[in-house]
Design a protein that fits this description.
13 strands; globular; 13 helices; single chain; alpha/beta; seven-stranded parallel sheet
């Protein structure tokens, strides 16, 4: 990397390129973008926050102190005809619009942090003397796919994703199996292991679940990799089992035709009110995350901080969060194993379940956003030419 010949401004300035911010966009990466911007600002960095939301109110997302270090830059999300490949086309056009702004602002930027494909054009073209770091989060396009349609979509994403991994100045791994995926694609690439974090505010109230009503919670968008098909196979058997009196609650955009009609199955829809989401977590008994592929799900950390045992597939970086100590780590794609794991959690005595929940809280506390913000800033500073 050639030096730019400029004097680095103070404080250290990070251009954070996002494809959306929670709650205006729903998803783990969108939550990560908000908390990463906040934690970098808390760590003393100046953040140029690129986003596609015309009506963004930064006062809702960030504290007054954080806002002093965050400059939001609106980039309209481009239109594209709904033809095969339109997702990639829109991402490339969006990244190109971002890159044009970066070229004008590069004199005050020390590092660029890219979420997903938002820095496609910037990684491809480069910025003289400015390191560009890529975070593709779950790397789902390189994990197991189900069905021909998903395999085709995965194939279309793998080629540009692999090129960006190889060309970026460094690649962020959330840890676990994701580091192995990156190393397999680009053996000489520099990998920065920086996990997802959780705010201190999630630890403020204890779990309020009643021992007489065991509610298993599922949180996630409706897409094949979340394993809803497996859960739909398992739920009728557990609901019929008079030993448990279990109920199931879903947060996410689950289509009507994928919903189980039962008086102990509840669908909340896609929620954007984080306080309501927290209340639902704290009234639950356990979280289930039966995904075929994942990164490091924020929903698992949220459940752990809420004092819940967790049943989750051993994919991505999930094993860093879930073990026999605080739940059950299971083989992905196996309905029988999922059923057995949920039965084991539901059979626990109240003290046993409380012990798993306490272990979840303890483990979650190690993934503190303030610490991760400092580590991220340090890693970006060490990449300076």
């Amino acid at each position: 990397m050639e030096p730019s010949g400029k004097l680095h401004p103070e404080p250290f300035c990070v251009a954070l390129l996002t494809d959306g911010l929670f709650p205006l966009s729903i998803g783990g990466m969108q939550k990560h973008s908000v908390r990463l911007a906040a934690s970098l600002a808390d760590a003393g960095a100046r953040v140029l926050l690129f986003h596609p939301h015309e009506q963004l109110d930064v006062a809702v997302l960030f504290s007054e102190k954080q806002r002093a270090n965050i400059e939001a830059i609106y980039i309209p999300w481009p239109a594209a005809a709904p033809v095969p490949g339109h997702y990639l086309l829109r991402n490339y056009r969006y990244s190109k619009a971002i890159h044009e702004v970066l070229l004008r602002e590069q004199q005050r930027i020390n590092a660029v942090y890219v979420q997903g494909f938002a820095g496609w054009k910037t990684i491809s073209s480069g910025l003289k003397g400015i390191p560009v770091v890529l975070n593709l989060h779950g790397m789902e396009m390189f994990q197991a796919m189900q069905g021909w349609r998903n395999n085709v979509q995965g194939f279309m994403l793998r080629l540009p994703a692999a090129r960006l991994i190889k060309k970026a100045d460094a690649v962020v791994s959330l840890g676990g199996k994701l580091s192995h995926i990156i190393a397999r694609i680009a053996p000489t690439q520099r990998i920065l292991t920086l996990p997802v974090g959780i705010d201190d505010s999630w630890f403020e109230e204890p779990n309020q679940a009643s021992p007489k009503e065991k509610t298993v919670l599922f949180v996630g968008r409706y897409e094949w990799r979340k394993g809803l098909d497996l859960l739909n196979q398992v739920m009728p058997k557990l609901l019929k089992d008079t030993r448990f009196q279990v109920s199931f609650r879903f947060i996410g955009d689950i289509p009507e035709d994928k919903r189980l009609v039962h008086d102990r199955v509840f669908y909340e829809g896609a929620l954007r009110d984080e306080q309501r989401i927290r209340r639902i977590y704290r009234s639950a008994y356990a979280l289930v995350c039966p995904s075929y592929s994942e990164g490091m799900p924020t929903v698992i950390l949220e459940a752990m901080a809420s004092g819940l045992p967790v049943v989750a597939s051993d994919v991505g970086a999930v094993a860093l969060l879930v073990s026999a100590e605080n739940g059950r780590l299971i083989e992905p794609g196996n309905a029988a194993v999922l059923e057995s794991a949920l039965e084991a959690i539901l059979k626990l005595t109240e003290p046993e379940a409380a012990a798993l929940g306490a272990a979840s809280k303890t483990k979650a506390a190690a993934f503190n956003w303030k610490q991760i913000g400092r580590l991220t800033l340090q890693a970006l500073q060490e990449l300076q030419p």
